[in-house]
Amino acid sequence: MSKWSLVTKGFVKDNPTFVLVLGMCPTLATTTSAINGLEMGLATLFVLVLSNMAISALAPLVPDKVHIPVYIVVIATFVTVLQLLMQAYMPAAYATLGLFIPLIVVNCIVLGRAEAFANKNTVIDSALDGLGVGLGFTLSLTVIGLVREILGSGSAFGFKFIPGDGILAFVMAPGAFLVLGYLMVLFNKYLKK
Amino acid sequence: MATQSTLKNMLLCLTLVCLVCAAILGGAYAMTYKPIQQANENILKASIGAVLPEGGTISDQKTASFGGRNYTYYEQLSGDAVQAYAVKSSTTGFGGTLELMVGVLPDGTVNSTRVLSHSETPGLGAKCQTDTKFIDQFKGLGPDKLVKLRADGGDVDAITASTITSRAYTLAVSNAVEVVKSLKKEN
What we know:
The complex is a heterodimer. Chain A is 66% helix and 2% strand.
């Protein structure tokens, strides 16, 4: 597999949201607008790349029976570092996403990539894999957020272009399930052949 | 490939990994401690500035108790005279605590209000943060006009379909006004 396809397979073939259907909690909860989705995706990307690299470096040294606790400790460390950094340098993003940042620890995409890829591949390949899957996740979250924002608030990335209130349900939880479901159908019908 | 899962190996590995992670976290905490303080202070200052008239200097945080609860407030001083107060006031909204910063003039007139934190429904109650039609109504209320919803006999129009949020918001503002009035009585 070429290095480039390691990155691009996360976009369509192994798209974490629409194909692997992983990390549904942040997907449903944070995609109330395109910006929120984008920021959550990037936060996960950051953790994914670093934890993949650290875990692929550590993997040969870790005894089998304790590998899950070790991975979780490593992931939790990066998530907490990210949380502190966001609090310090991006207070606005932290105000909207703060609650969901600690939840990245238990995002199954992160542990999933550690188990399925990082612990049997090189550090560089693992970083590229994290980058690809993270970008795929970011892309999916942004698209879901964009659709929900257009339908629910009549705006895109914060710019209002449809006057009035929009269809409220799309901003709330039921809309998250609806949009995710329909996008998953469309994605699998047209893109994943 | 992996090291053998003997007790010694497992203990050693977990201990080492935890130690290194703890060191990284400690470092990150120490590094971001000051910037986080600074960022929180900036947010607070911005919200105080937004609800008070221009000019004057802001005092340190003070506490007043009113109706069995403690309120944090800041004085805006020009010279020795208090020009206005910024009171942090919280009530229970539809989804949880609704926290406001309320700017009040010494005679009990509301200058301006701003939401500090809320957990209201997106698209409904959450509009209390952005709906200028709703927020601007509070300006000038206080000394003679009651800070109450129209449904409760006052002059404030609630946000459509968000009566509970609007009522909580109104109550928070009215509490802040009462806090300032009680401060004046003490002095």
